[in-house]
Specification:
By secondary structure, this protein is α+β, with helices and mostly antiparallel strands. It has 2 domains: about 270 residues, Zn peptidases (Aminopeptidase, 3-Layer(aba) Sandwich); about 110 residues, Alpha-Beta Plaits, CATH 3.30.70.360. Helix content is about 35%, strand content about 25%. Helix 4 crosses helix 10. The N and C termini lie close together (about 5 Å).
């Protein structure tokens, strides 16, 4: 297979890739409720000759392609779910579902996955080993990867390597990020409830004002990262919601805050969580209040395996050229591809999808998010090339 040009074949598929993407964009589905999307995926993969399993991890799709001779197994993953956002767009493929849209590019990931599946199926007889495709629900914080792993997605066969990618709207079209080491952060969710003693707004001396206590807590939390984390390390502690109080003349008894912690290092994570608890202990006790803290570990960090990253980097150079494969600073966003990367040597890549001249550079999770669809054949060629390189022992 040396010299096989997946980029040229993928470019010839561009019309089909766009059609898949726009159909999925018009019919977004949330979390695990991706039955229509999974149906499109399963039907297409079946027509391509894959062995298909459905309802893995509730609504995921797993598909297996056998090569022409014995060899290892490589896994390729795409996520399928959308977000609860009302789309703002005049595109002809705007979401038909009120309050739901593909604001993170997962519709493009599905199209890319199906494109890579098409390319690899065409050349199955030339490939050693097997290709395992995983189309995953519920990436957006609902634990879809963990659910698929628990349901045996990696069990039969167990892959020897894994690759995945994400369209990225701060990276210009035509560029690819494929590098070793940390790429995306671990994510925890935080829920803090401050409990005081409510009462009349005109009689504060009879109360413990949960709103006032919360103000002190919020101020104190800002010192955790700035004064307890090594400046050469990285951490983000954000409180995103604060809810408390019922009326202008009522001192609130409880206030609830929700937030997130992002880290790469387990040591840094433990430092932040320890200091969080110490500060909550001190501030609330000092002001006569109490608190409850609940921490939920959502995803671990995406850390790219050096050997798999080298294969991915060579694949990217083959697809877009050496000058278009820059280093990128690690991102504080999270991705549950880490559930697979914890179990299988893996590399997760970023595919540039931004085109500022066309106005296609809105950030992810924005109601105006859209991307340059010319990124789709690049992504399909990239996944197919990385898979083939691994199966051929890096000889392509």
């Amino acid at each position: 297979m040396t010299g096989l040009d997946f980029r040229a074949e993928a470019e010839a598929l561009q019309g089909q890739l766009i059609a898949w993407r726009r159909d999925l964009h018009q019919h977004p589905e949330l979390g695990f409720e991706v039955s229509r999307t999974a149906g499109v995926v399963a039907r297409t993969l079946g027509e391509l000759g894959y062995e298909v399993r459905t309802q893995v991890g509730r609504s995921g799709v797993v598909a297996l392609l056998h090569g022409g001779r014995p060899g290892p197994t490589v896994m390729l993953r795409a996520d399928m779910d959308a977000l609860p956002i009302q789309e703002i767009s005049d595109a002809p493929y705007v979401s038909c579902v009120p309050g739901v849209m593909h604001a993170c590019g997962h519709d493009g990931h599905v199209a890319i996955g199906l494109g890579a599946a098409t390319l690899l199926a065409r050349h199955a007889a030339e490939l050693p080993g097997r290709v395992l495709f995983i189309f995953q629900p519920a990436e957006e914080g609902d634990g879809g990867a963990a659910a698929m792993v628990a349901d045996g997605a990696l069990a039969d066969p167990k892959p020897d390597a894994a690759f995945g990618l994400h369209l990225w709207n701060t990276v210009p079209l035509g560029r690819v990020v494929a590098q070793a080491g940390p790429l995306m952060a671990a994510a925890d969710t935080l829920r803090i409830t401050v409990r005081g003693r409510g009462g009349h707004g005109a009689l504060p001396h009879q109360t413990v004002d949960a709103v006032a206590v919360t103000g002190q807590v919020l101020s104190a939390l800002q010192t955790i990262v700035s004064r307890n984390v090594d400046p050469q390390e990285t951490a983000v502690l954000t409180i995103g919601t604060v809810h408390g109080g019922t009326a202008f003349n009522v001192i609130a008894e409880t206030v609830e805050m929700q937030g997130t912690l992002r880290t790469f290092s387990p040591v840094v994570r433990e430092t932040v969580l320890t200091r969080l608890q110490v500060l909550l202990d001190g501030v609330t006790a000092g002001l006569g209040a109490k608190y409850e803290l609940k921490v939920h570990e959502m995803t671990s960090a995406v850390i790219n395996d050096p050997a798999m990253a080298e294969i991915a980097h060579l694949a990217a150079v083959q697809v877009v050229g050496k000058a278009a494969v820059p280093w990128h600073a690690p991102l504080m966003v999270s991705e549950d591809f880490s559930e697979f990367a914890r179990r299988v040597p893996a590399c997760f890549m970023l595919v540039g999808s931004a085109n500022a001249e066309l106005g296609l550079n809105a950030p992810h999770h924005n109601p105006r998010f859209d991307f340059d669809e010319r990124a789709l054949p690049i992504g399909a060629a990239l996944l197919a090339t990385a898979a083939a390189r691994f199966l051929e022992g890096g000889q392509i």
